[in-house]
Amino acid sequence: MTAALHPAAVHRSDLRPACKRKEQEHGKDRGNTPKKPRLVFTDVQRRTLHAIFKENKRPSKELQITISQQLGLELSTVSNFFMNARRRSLDKWQDEGSSNSGNSSSSSSTCTKA
Hints:
mainly alpha
């Protein structure tokens, strides 16, 4: 039996350096492009976006364009805000539900797609 395991062990050790090289290559690719700085909303932008979100969780693309123009933000930034806000809202709801049921592992893993 040990003879059958030995070739598999050699095979696995051959794969390990290849995986490390892949990780190193990916690290090099990331190092060439500078990281984009994180956008911090102004107080007015943040309060406006939250107020709109309270009224409308899923604003139309036209409304998002208007919001982006009024607040001086990119359309993608406004779209991402609403997407993230919906996720946070869902996460908060799930956390409250799981603390009541006492089964947090299953409820947090059941709804991973937004």
